[in-house]
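lol forgot to send this yesterday, sorry. struct tokens for the thing we talked abt
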């Protein structure tokens, strides 16, 4: 049985998931983010030679800055944070 948390990789190296419709609905609620991701995907498809791996040093720097921060993406922002 397919677990929706485990994506299925097709022969075309594309990821399929049973949660695609839920993600699509969420992205439709945020048109600016959706448009930005569409532009990014189009650029990646047009110029795959520009894609570079993230350097280990950058990852270590990010983890040192935010590694101990707990984030709940489902909780609303406080008015003073906006």
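and heres what i got for the seq, position by position
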């Amino acid at each position: 049985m397919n677990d929706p948390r485990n994506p299925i990789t097709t022969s075309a190296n594309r990821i399929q998931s049973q949660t695609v419709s839920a993600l699509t609905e969420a992205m439709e609620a945020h048109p600016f983010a959706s448009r930005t991701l569409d532009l990014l995907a189009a650029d990646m498809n047009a110029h795959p030679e520009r894609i570079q791996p993230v350097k280990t040093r950058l990852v270590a720097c990010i983890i040192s800055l935010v590694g101990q921060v707990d984030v709940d993406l489902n909780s609303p922002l406080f008015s003073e944070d906006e």
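The CA atoms of residues 4 and 68 lie 29 Å apart. anyway ping me if u want another try
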